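Reviewers of the previous submission asked for a worked example of the structure-prediction workflow described in the proposal, so we include one complete record here. The input consisted solely of the amino acid sequence. No template or homolog information was supplied to the procedure at any stage.
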Amino acid sequence: MFKGSGVAIVTPFNEQGIDFEKLGELLEWHISESTDAIIICGTTGESATMSHEERKEAIKFTVEKVANRIPVIAGTGSNNTSYSIELSQYAEEVGVDGLLEVTPYYNKATQRGLIEHYTAIADKVNIPIIVYNVPGRTGLNILPSTLFELSKHPNIRGVKEASGNIAQVAEIARLVDENFYIYSGNDDMVVPLLSLGGHGVISVVANILPKDTHNMVKYFLDGDIEASRKLQLNMKPLIDALFIEVNPIPVKEAMNILGMNVGSCRLPLTNMSNENRQKLIDEMKLYGMEIRG
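From that input alone, the workflow returned the following structure tokens.
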């Protein structure tokens, strides 16, 4: 587990598949910019359009490249429990520090089904699991009472909460013990979540502002609430622009605008509209970022 800013890192693609040279550059950059953890093959990493072999290759490459300098957490979730177990066991075998398990999507499980799904995975691995609650994408919300039951399992040690419901975060914090890690899944709600006892963020904006995202959490945890608050509010217009179209379309475009050359998203995700791209550029300029692309 980690405290601070974990980047939900993009997956750079080229015509051959994953651009591993570029991925290696991004990993080194994040380590140098004080990112606290790498989350590979998450939603922002477009795991939904990666083959099984690509996911395995990306996870293994990241573990080897990072080489224990910061934690590596692998997104191994699926709406197929047995597949999640298979990929989770592989990730553990190659040396990840933890797993990010998204709520099963499309199936629309009951809350009891969620408990059984996550318990089945947790029973088959020996590393920490972060439950990923993102009802806006999955169509299913993990209730605080369900998360409380899951938190009793020794391998289920945290949640990435992306419901956007701060009252739900408060109820989770009330129910779970202090050793259960709560991470914001919304870049615009990091400080509010930290104020309820949260431990950090699994971040999209950290792909382009790793140091500021790290500092926002560090300031708060070190007791400098005002500096943390100012960073949150200063970053908010840019964060909003990063979600003007579905993630990760805007953040990949932003990286390309900055000259980072991470390639396009895979279908069914498309390039940004010209109008939204200009809005993104405008916010990047206002934040003081250098436009190259």
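The first helix runs from residue 20 to 32. We consider this example representative of the routine output the project will generate in years two and three.
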